[in-house]
Amino acid sequence: MEWLALVMFGALVALLLFGYPVAFTLGAVALLFGIPALGVEFFNLLPLRIWGVMTNYTLLAVPLFVFMGVMLEKSGIAEDLLETMGLLFGGMRGGLTISIVAVGALLAATTGIVGATVVTMAVIALPAMLKHGYEPELSTGTIAAAGTLGQLIPPSVVLVLLGDAVGVPVGRLFAGALLPGLLLVGLFVVYVAAYTALRPAAGPPIDPARLRAPAHGLGRRVLLSLIPPAGLVLAVLGSIFFGVASPTESAALGALGATLLAAGHRRLTATNLTETMRSTMRLTSMVFVILVGATAFGLVFRGLGGDALVHRLMSGLPGEAWGFLAVSMTLVFVLGFFLDFLEILFIVVPVLAPIAQHLGVDPLWFAVLLAVNLQTSFLTPPFGFSLFYLKAAAPGEIRMSQIYRGVLPFVGLQLVTLLALLVFPALARWLPDLVDRLQGL
Amino acid sequence: DRREEPASTQEASKPATKLRWKLTTAWPPNFPIFHDGVTRFAREVEAMSGGRLHIDVYGGGELVPPLETFNAVSQGTVQMGHAAAYYWAGKVPAAQFFTTVPFGMNAQGVAAWLTSGGGLSLWEEIYKPFNLVPIPMGNTGVQMGGWFNKRIGRLEDLKGLRIRTPGLGGRVMASAGANPVLLPGAEIYTALERSTIDAAEWVGPYHDERMGLYRAAKYYYYPGWQEPGPVLELLVNSEAWAKLPDDLRLIVRAAAATVHNWIFAEFEAKNHEALQLLTTKYKVQIVPFPVEVLRALRSHAKAVLEDEAAKHADFKRVYEAYASFQSRHEAWSTLSEAAYMEALKS
Amino acid sequence: MPDYARRRSRLLRLANRLSLVAEYTGRAVAWLALLLVAVVCYDVAMRYVFHSGSIALQELAWHLYALLFLLGAAYTLKYDGHVRVDIVYQRLVPHTRAWIDLLGALLFLLPLCVLIVWTSVPFAYQAFVYGEGSPDVGGLPYRYVLKSAIPLGFALLALEGVAQAARALAALSERRG
Ligand code: NA
Ligand code: NA
């Protein structure tokens, strides 16, 4: 029966290409394979899993962040903000993409909920970037990649779960993932700067003639359009970062703040408010219905013994450290094309961790390697959650093929980071060891 | 290591039917001691039955979410589960007594109640409408009071304290003025480290050390008044159980009893090692709750339990049985356990 | 009016009438987004200003978000908000796209909805029979209300799926004319 699990992946990829919504294709493939092989009875477990998605209150921050983003967008505040930033940086090429990476890194340092960060950044920034002639591939790739940084940059639930599975204290792992995360941010910045330098048309400077609102004096714009919303976003992020409030609480205050800002600009019209609520609902529903489809797929994958199949694939792993690392990292990377990171984590890590320990591979280093690898899985076509979220939040003219093309260079940069980590384990070890020494542990 | 698990033995001479069951747990996959106990149970059943009963073990979230273990076994799609009865407080409020309650009995007392004091038959009766047969399989021993970033010197220090402690313990804390917070296990570390919460309770020294909570909080309080001896449960779907041949049922019970002892022993052994590590290597400040605070919490606990008893008939019935056994047992354990512990100090 | 045109307009009328359900439930459910913001802000104010937290309010927040995404799923489908991998789809002529939407609705969406409704009704009913509430003391009662949102949400989704199929059929009969 296990081979069926493999066929199921093939069928999923083939059927996804027809273009029927991802969520329902996932669910239908689960039914198609699950009912004949496991019986209808087996699906009595499905509502239990859906309930698991409903009760996952970590994800509560998603609708709240999205509300904030949509409100800023519908009221035109987001566009004014981005245009003012663009004007401020004057002739700087690709200025907006660099800002996106910076904001993504800040968001990453406060939360790690990819659905929230990707959708919010796409809603706020993408329309303005496209309007001012930014290349769609570059814009979408940057937003998807920057919005996914939160998996690696602490705090992050992935790191907590990895730490538990591998047996590294969470604090050490948080410290260990920080430098690789910053390296990734640096690579992203260098990449978008180099790209826009080489292809100026991909990230043109803001053209004052195409501003949403007529340009008053720059000082007045900064005062009215830049400082209040930027202050709001920074206040939200700061309050999470410094532990004043949890991500959910800060996101709700951010949503309230965005609403008040819109009111202050006299743009809190009935239309804007209802549009904001409905868009928030649509985007939230999109995110979670995909999770429902994915959970149906995961259930059947388990039922068919797909985990045993993966375990058997791993039983042939080389018996020395480097071969083991090469093969296991490749395996995780390939699984990332098809599987959700949680499924990968649950299926693969319990088997890999003891082998790594047996071969004398440093568990901290190994966990950071896995974290970089798992983060990449959000970005790899065809099944990358960040790509789906971005597609749904992007304006209608953006195509999935553009997103796939746009994200590939960033997947490449993720792999560069992975290689750098393999070659220089100190990237993961240096900071936690330093922190331990300072704390006298 | 899963690869070393024995494959189900293929003995052609045995005409008996081979059963393949699923067991799902309320623990993260590979959660030390908890999950180890369950895989040990599956191995023992397999070996003792000569491969006639094979059990596939699924960690929490692998097949169904951890807290859906009850439903999955109750409907019978999965034949077995391993969890703690107090997770089902929303469905069966009385079930909490079969795990632990604030200021309830310790492992020794609760074992006496379940095995020889009528507790287990009460438990079986309470679970019957849900198509479940409960079998005790493990006890963690007394847990710790939790990790705090604020000193609790007197009762007033609990006022407004943002604490993550689920269930009845949380309710008692709330009635003492604290501010309970809902938080999944995976977020405890971050919330403590960033001071989104002031205190949190997880398991005990061994699991807490593993999560590295000593890096996020300064004080480690004891005793674990809120969980003085939590019992872990093996759940079996009653229809599947009824169809099981007598000898296999005995085998399941025998394996569960062995693993019950194993889990308890592991906790006692690993916790004391971890405690030493926490105090010597990580210099954690281990602090007792002041007597005044414990006394107040105990009276709040009594009020909370009576409040619940007033609301649910089953809860009241089990509460009375439990409390009566506890008070009678206390007279003896004061002379035995407690007096001996005192003697050791002298 | 020729036959195909009459059939086409009948199908469209049917689709539009069915879609009214998704439209109006969606508009109503969207208010939960605003309510969610209000509930969490209120909880934050209570917690940080008055130092009193409430498990019930914290639970209400995730109850609202679960209702929002389940009951809003049909509305989202109506506005084509469920993401597609449109690599091939975007290059297809409208006729072929209509075929995909028709077959997708009939073979993918509807069976999935039927199965979820079928299995989740007993799931919700059990919660009703056992009077299930929150496992946390001080949490919200009536878990069956929330659990009923699973079959309700997917029934609404199925209805909108039928509308999608009818719309696709209408588009297909247009071609023939
Ligand atoms: Na993060
Ligand atoms: Na992927």
UniProtKB/TrEMBL annotation, chain A:
UniProt keyword annotation of Transferase present: no
Keywords in alphabetical order: Cell inner membrane, Cell membrane, Membrane, Transmembrane, Transmembrane helix, Transport
Top-level taxon in the UniProt lineage: Bacteria
Membrane topology according to the record: Multi-pass membrane protein
Compartment(s) of residence: Cell inner membrane
A Gene Ontology cellular-component term: plasma membrane
Chain ranges passing through the membrane: 50-72, 84-107, 113-130, 142-162, 174-198, 222-245, 280-301, 321-352, 364-390, 410-431
Main location: membrane
Domain TRAP C4-dicarboxylate transport system permease DctM subunit: 9-427
One example GO MF annotation: transmembrane transporter activity
Stated role: Part of the tripartite ATP-independent periplasmic (TRAP) transport system.
Family named by the database record: Belongs to the TRAP transporter large permease family.
Quaternary organization: The complex comprises the extracytoplasmic solute receptor protein and the two transmembrane proteins.
Protein name, as recorded: TRAP transporter large permease protein
Lineage, broadest ranks: Bacteria, Pseudomonadati, Pseudomonadota, Gammaproteobacteria, Acidiferrobacterales
Automatic annotation (TrEMBL), chain C:
Top-level taxon of the source organism: Bacteria
Oligomer and partners: The complex comprises the extracytoplasmic solute receptor protein and the two transmembrane proteins.
Molecular function (Gene Ontology), one example: transmembrane transporter activity
Residue ranges constituting the Tripartite ATP-independent periplasmic transporters DctQ component domain according to the UniProt record: 36-169
Main location: membrane
InterPro entries cross-referenced by the UniProt entry: DctQ, TRAP_DctQ
UniProt name for this protein: TRAP transporter small permease protein
Transmembrane segments: 21-40, 60-77, 98-125, 145-166
Function: Part of the tripartite ATP-independent periplasmic (TRAP) transport system.
Intracellular or extracellular location(s): Cell inner membrane
A GO CC term assigned to this protein in UniProt: plasma membrane
Family: Belongs to the TRAP transporter small permease family.
Membrane topology category: Multi-pass membrane protein
